[in-house]
Amino acid sequence: MSRKSPKDSYARPDAFSKRAKAEGYPARSIYKLEEIDQRCALLRPGQRVLDLGCAPGSWLLYAAKRVGPKGSVRGVDLTPLAIGLPSNAVSLAGDAFEPSGPTYDFIREGAPYDAVVSDMAPSTTGNRFTDQVRSADLVRRTLEIAGEFLAPGGAWVAKIFMSEELVSIRKRVRELFDEERIIRPEGTRQISYEVFLVGLRRRPEAPPTG
Ligand SMILES: C[S@@+](CC[C@H](N)C(=O)[O-])C[C@H]1O[C@@H](n2cnc3c(N)ncnc32)[C@H](O)[C@@H]1O
Fold it and tell me: Helix (H, G, I), strand (E, B), or coil: what is residue 3?
């Protein structure tokens, strides 16, 4: 009998993957954002949303539906999207770390945002420590972007691989936001060590960068 590797668990379609396909979403990750949205009252009609790490596009489609025709969603990913987008959503292939240039300009043009959401994940190396550090770096970048472009009262969500890095990151989240939450949505695969950090109600007096 052959043994199942962790990679098999990611490749095997589960109930969430099947439901995503049936509902027209390119990835099962949609249900993680949906659960966070339902638990935290994240998205509302008319809002402006920035989606970091938006490919293949499930969060973008979900957010576009939630904010409706009076709202707008901007997505950025290293990989270009291969799906058609509704008229209130746009995306750009670029690196969220870019400190200036086209990706930075694209993000700035849509500001101020009511929500900055990030499902960004590093390409995993197999070395857990390296992956944790890279994931934490991505989250710190999303906090910088939120610090610069999130409106007072706005919300922030970011995926992180659990590690000791959480301590300093959570401290920064509590400086920037009135309320901090950690959520592990039901759609998270059992073998995954990811969680989602949520910041609610950006403090108006919070310093712009950390
Ligand atoms: C789990 S996927 C996101 C899935 C997406 N939320 C959805 O629902 O379709 C993670 C994405 O993060 C992107 N990513 C990783 N590092 C990035 C960076 N520096 N800038 C932009 N995107 C990045 C990857 O290219 C990958 O597509």
Answer: coil
